[in-house]
């Protein structure tokens, strides 16, 4: 058959092998961050073939649909692209602040933001941190 | 190939209609649309209904009340673009020869949630982080102030214009003027956006009748030709995205102008997706009304109101008219129909010949928006 290779898997093998649902709501076994030497890193993933990254970690590449996502760590430093403090919510305590953080490898992640003024500007250097409630970002300490 | 014409339109005044069901909201809009088209319920050959929160079989629940049955009916959710997606499906039904008379309905009842922000899908990882629609636009607004060296007063001017337009619209939820000071002093929702910079919670319904060229000629009906009908989805990325440049709206507008054979400079009015003040500014640029970077001055110099380049949101837009999400795309088409057929009353855009509608919807991780629709209309010759 055109396009087949000598070591291709037996015809139709993937139909059953790849059939299981993805447990993307299994938060109890998911570990979103790692703390090491005082620094916090996000447990993200990257496609071995396309280089496309994802956080939270995924099993399938969002660009090419390849099933070759491998774990990577991202952080601890990033830049806060923009942010907003939310004052109305039916599901969580307000106010809270969220914002998009761009990491040096190109990954963008929506983060909980702590320790910035509601009217702060954009492009603020931030670092990852975590406590019992989970991970978040705070403004990076200025170097002296 | 046949052309598609809108020959009838109707809607109910938007507001908090807690005593009405989905069919209670939509039936008056349907009957007005049929009456203005000069057709009977039994003439309808296909029904498309857009909604986001109507539940199962919304179209059937509505039209069974007025004697329409057996014909194909589809119900479509595409977040805020649901109604406009139904309009797109109805247009395709006629273009592809499946029907000659299509009833398109947009309807939603947001008071069922008791107020607050729109409930997004909790399975989404960004929603799990606390994402709500005002936050998407709050972040856009923050970036706009940063990149464009603008002040929040520019944002507030959008609401002032919307309320001024809405004042003349008997179908608008808000019909009173406001001021920049009042807008900025209203309570914070998602910084830097305040309450009067956000579309209200409300209920509404709208309906239009679409027909083929041949059917319109048979009726001898006036109307509005659908010159372009474009539907796009977003493209997910896990990397950088310029929040002031929503690709989905740029692409949709580009394709719509190409399909219609005319451009933004030819428009007399537009009803665009001003769910929040910043949205209108961003979409001036995305829809080609002004060059990128000039939205603030375009607004402040009066080019988007009566006497300007084109009238943007003569209805008052989503900010003043209201935004029952799945209804909005059809309500925009109704507004355009009234202007292009000279029936818009005190808010009539003088000598209106061509118009655009734009609605884009959905907070979804990795995409600028989930769906976007752009329609272009021209008064039928």
Report on the architecture of this protein:
Chain B: It comes from Pseudoprimorskyibacter insulae. Chain B: It holds the Pfam family Thiolase_N. Chain B: One of its GO terms (molecular function) is acetyl-CoA C-acyltransferase activity. Chain B: It is an enzyme of class 2 (transferase). Chain B: Keywords: Acyltransferase, Lipid transport, Lipid-binding, Transferase, Transport. Chain A: Pfam families: OB_ChsH2_C (PF01796). The complex is a heterodimer of chains A (144) and B (381). Chain A is mainly beta and 144 residues long. Chain A folds into two domains: 29-73; 77-139, OB fold (Dihydrolipoamide Acetyltransferase, E2P) (Beta Barrel), CATH 2.40.50. Chain A is 3% helix and 40% strand. Chain A has one helix at residues 13-17; strands at 33-36, 39-47, 53-54, 69-74, 77-86, 96-102, 108-112, 124-131, 134-139. In chain A, strands 7-6-5-8-9 form a five-stranded antiparallel sheet, with no helix packed on it. In chain A, strands 1, 2, 3 and 4 form a four-stranded antiparallel sheet that branches. In chain A, strand 2 and strand 3 form a beta hairpin. Chain A is elongated and about 60 Å long. The N and C termini of chain A lie far apart (66 Å). The model of chain A has no long low-confidence stretch (mean pLDDT 91). Chain B is an alpha/beta fold. Chain B has one domain (4-110, 200-379): Peroxisomal Thiolase, Chain A, domain 1, CATH 3.40.47. Helix content of chain B is 34%, strand content 19%. Chain B is built from 13 helices and twelve strands. Chain B has helices at residues 22-37, 58-63, 82-95, 125-128, 133-148, 152-166, 180-185, 213-219, 247-260, 277-286, 295-300, 317-320, 328-340; strands spanning 4-11, 46-50, 73-76, 101-109, 188-190, 193-194, 203-212, 224-233, 269-271, 311-312, 354-361, 371-379. Chain B has a ten-stranded mixed sheet. Chain B has a two-stranded antiparallel ribbon with strand order 5-6. The longest helix of chain B is centred in the first third of the chain and has 16 residues, at 22-37. Chain B starts with a strand and ends with a strand. At the A-B interface, strand 3, strand 5, strand 6 and strand 7 of A face helix 5 and strand 5 of B.
């Amino acid at each position: 058959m055109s396009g087949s290779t000598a070591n291709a898997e037996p015809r139709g093998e993937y139909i059953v092998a790849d059939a299981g649902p993805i447990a993307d709501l299994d938060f109890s076994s998911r570990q979103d961050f790692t703390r090491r030497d005082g620094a916090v890193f996000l447990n993200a993933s990257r496609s071995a073939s396309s280089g496309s990254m994802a956080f939270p970690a995924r099993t399938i590449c969002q660009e090419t649909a390849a099933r070759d996502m491998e774990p990577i760590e991202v952080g601890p430093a990033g830049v806060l692209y923009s942010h907003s403090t939310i004052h109305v919510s039916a599901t969580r305590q307000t106010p809270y602040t969220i914002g998009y953080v761009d990491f040096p490898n190109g990954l963008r992640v929506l983060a909980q933001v702590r320790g910035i003024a509601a009217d702060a500007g954009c492009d603020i250097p931030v670092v990852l941190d975590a406590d019992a409630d989970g991970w978040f970002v705070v403004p990076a300490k200025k170097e002296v | 190939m046949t052309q598609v014409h809108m020959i009838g339109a109707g809607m109910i005044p938007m507001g908090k209609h807690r005593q009405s069901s989905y069919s209670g909201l939509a039936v008056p809009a349907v009957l007005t649309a049929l009456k203005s088209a000069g057709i009977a319920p039994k003439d309808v050959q296909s029904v498309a209904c857009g909604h986001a929160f109507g539940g199962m079989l919304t179209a059937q629940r509505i039209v069974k009340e007025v004697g329409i049955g057996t014909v194909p009916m589809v119900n479509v959710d595409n977040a805020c673009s649901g109604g406009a997606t139904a309009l797109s499906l109805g247009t395709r039904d006629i273009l592809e020869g499946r029907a000659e008379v299509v009833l398109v309905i947009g309807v939603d009842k947001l008071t069922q949630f008791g107020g607050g922000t729109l409930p997004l899908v909790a399975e989404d990882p960004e929603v799990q982080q606390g994402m709500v629609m005002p936050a998407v636009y709050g972040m856009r607004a923050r970036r706009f102030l940063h990149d464009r060296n603008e002040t929040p007063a520019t944002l507030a001017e959008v609401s002032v214009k919307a309320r001024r337009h809405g004042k003349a619209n008997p179908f608008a939820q808000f019909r009173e003027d406001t001021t920049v000071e009042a807008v900025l002093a209203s309570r914070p929702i998602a910084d830097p956006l305040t309450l009067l910079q956000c579309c209200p919670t409300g209920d509404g319904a709208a309906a239009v009748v679409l027909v083929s060229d041949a059917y319109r000629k048979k009726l001898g009906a006036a109307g509005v030709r659908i010159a372009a009908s474009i539907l796009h989805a977003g493209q997910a990325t896990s990397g950088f995205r310029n929040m002031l440049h929503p690709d989905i709206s740029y692409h949709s507008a580009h394709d719509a102008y190409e399909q219609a054979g005319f451009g933004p400079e030819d428009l007399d009015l537009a009803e665009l997706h001003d769910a929040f003040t910043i949205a209108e500014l961003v979409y001036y640029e995305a829809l080609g009304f002004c060059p990128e970077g000039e939205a603030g001055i375009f607004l402040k110099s009066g080019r988007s109101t009566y006497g300007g380049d084109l009238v943007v949101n003569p209805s008052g837009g989503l900010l003043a008219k209201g935004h029952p999400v799945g209804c909005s795309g059809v309500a925009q088409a109704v507004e355009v129909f009234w202007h292009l057929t000279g029936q818009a009353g005190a808010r009539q855009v003088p000598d209106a010949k061509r118009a655009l509608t734009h609605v884009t919807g959905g907070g979804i991780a990795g995409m600028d928006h989930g769906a976007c629709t752009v329609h272009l209309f021209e008064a039928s010759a």
